[in-house]
Give the backbone structure.
Amino acid sequence: ATGPATSVARLRRLEPYRFSGDWPTRATLVAGPVADFNVILRPERARAEVSALALGARRARELLRTTQAFVHVLAGALVARVTGEEEPFELGGGDSLWLRGLAGGEELELAGNARETELLIVALAPP
């Protein structure tokens, strides 16, 4: 990726990269297929933090500090449960979960069901 703020950025697998949507960009394929996940928003309306997790068949807990978040499963499958929710959510590759109306401070419990489970968490907040 290229743009006014940087000359060249070489990204590793699952590495988030923030850039302005009005930058001219181009990319060179280094190896293998490419898939990308974009979060596009108006900076005067919201901000987003993206984190990637190679969960595998393990468990993890993430603290949600915002009132909205997305969980997107890139590969594998997982079970997600949010503090205060009675029922867990079962997600497979390509599935997303939109968490709204959070108070901020809830925990997101994740349990991967496959070695290849990878996911993105997008925390949305006011500007």
Observations:
- The mean pLDDT is 90.
- The beta strands are 47-54, 59-64, 68-75, 77-82, 89-92, 96-99, 106-112, 118-125.
